[in-house]
Specification:
2 domains, six-stranded parallel beta sheet, Dihydrodipicolinate Reductase, domain 2, 14 strands, alpha/beta, six-stranded mixed beta sheet
């Protein structure tokens, strides 16, 4: 069992880590840390609003028994040398300060954007670009660290990159156009999206989201060459919107391919990739990495987001695109709080352990 610490354990994503690591066969949570306001309290008490007594627990499952009475540490109390792996669930500004100090001694897997775009930092999605993990050793040597920083992609990028991978491998990609319909949980709860803003409404702008997707998709699907990532050469354009759905990001993707292909060819490529994906035997891996529906009314967030505990990417409506000479279009659904967040980070940790990077 590897000894694990969680930084930012009382926040929404930190809570997801608490749940995702419950009874994990490889990782044991030895410490949880949060702000000075929570430090010194039992986890259960740190989640309780002092003025109202209301529990700020946002998960559908109860607080796992192992965490209830753990005493929350401050970040400054965490000695990275005491742990084999640290998960961080903090805002990017805090991550830029906290994560390098931890990575000097111990591998860090992060949900923040702070280091995603640096040359020696891969953006890893298990089963999509596992070979990029080699860059973590380059990062260690360049920075003189014993550990490393391995950030997850933006949750909107995750499902898109997973579905583009088999298309790129079989047919090549020239252009990608995507419109997202993103769940309100992706905005967090503080400050989040106000209820009166999202009810009976669609918000057609999410700050920095489009830029993240456009950069990250090309980096994830690029090639590792001489200690750096050569970004994929296709062009990406997207519009990201917020819709009144609790969980699950839906995306409408339009892909111009280098080679001609039919919808059935794309379906076959996705299912074949899902069947042979490299991470199938990892503890957190879903039975199906990609599920393709023939029913034109699917995927739907309410029906499909929790399939395989939210770790599958669900695809439907694969059809020819009439604007591109070679092209297809489809709808995908990815669970932003599972595969796109803490549970995806745990899956990444499993992949890195198998590669003996932990």
């Amino acid at each position: 069992m590897l000894k694990v610490a969680i930084i930012g354990a009382t926040g929404v994503v930190g809570q997801e880590f608490i749940v995702a690591l419950d009874k994990h066969p490889w990782f044991k949570v030895e410490a949880i840390a949060a702000s000075e306001r929570s430090a010194g309290k039992k986890y259960l008490d740190a989640l309780r609003d002092s003025s109202t007594g209301i529990m700020k627990w946002h998960q559908r499952t109860p607080i796992p028994d192992y965490a209830r009475d753990m005493v929350v540490k401050s970040v400054n109390e965490i000695d990275a040398k005491d742990y084999d792996l640290i998960f961080t669930a903090v805002e990017s500004d805090d991550a830029r300060i906290i994560e390098p100090k931890l990575a000097e001694h111990t591998p860090v897997i992060s949900t923040a954007a702070a280091f995603r775009y640096e040359q020696d930092v891969p953006i890893l999605i298990p089963g999509v670009n596992d070979e990029h993990a080699e860059l973590l050793d380059v990062q260690r040597k360049r920075r003189g660290w014993k550990g490393f920083i391995a950030p997850l992609p933006n949750c909107t990028t995750t499902g898109l990159a997973i579905t583009l991978k088999p298309i790129m491998d079989e047919f090549g990609i020239e252009r990608v156009i995507m419109t997202s319909l993103q769940a309100v949980s992706g905005a967090g709860r503080s400050p989040g999206v106000a209820a009166l803003d999202i009810f009976d409404n669609i918000i057609p702008f999410i700050p920095k989201e489009e830029e993240k997707v456009q950069v990250e998709a090309k980096k994830i699907l690029g090639r590792l060459v001489d200690g750096r990532i050569d970004d994929a050469r296709f062009r990406v354009s997207c519009t990201c919107t917020r819709v009144p759905v609790i969980d699950g990001h839906t995306e409408c993707a339009f892909v111009e391919t280098s080679k001609g292909c039919e919808p059935d060819d794309v379906k076959r490529a996705m299912l074949n990739y899902s069947k042979h994906v490299s991470i199938k035997d990892l503890p957190s891996a879903p039975e199906d990495y990609i599920i393709v529906h023939d029913d034109p009314s699917r995927p739907q967030p309410r029906l499909d987001r929790d399939v395989n505990d939210g770790m599958s990417t669900i695809v439907g409506r694969i059809r020819k695109d009439t604007a591109f000479e070679n092209g297809v279009k489809y709808v995908l659904l990815s669970h932003n709080e599972k595969m796109g967040s803490a549970k995806g980070a745990v899956l990444l940790a499993e992949m890195l352990k198998v590669k003996e990077l932990l």
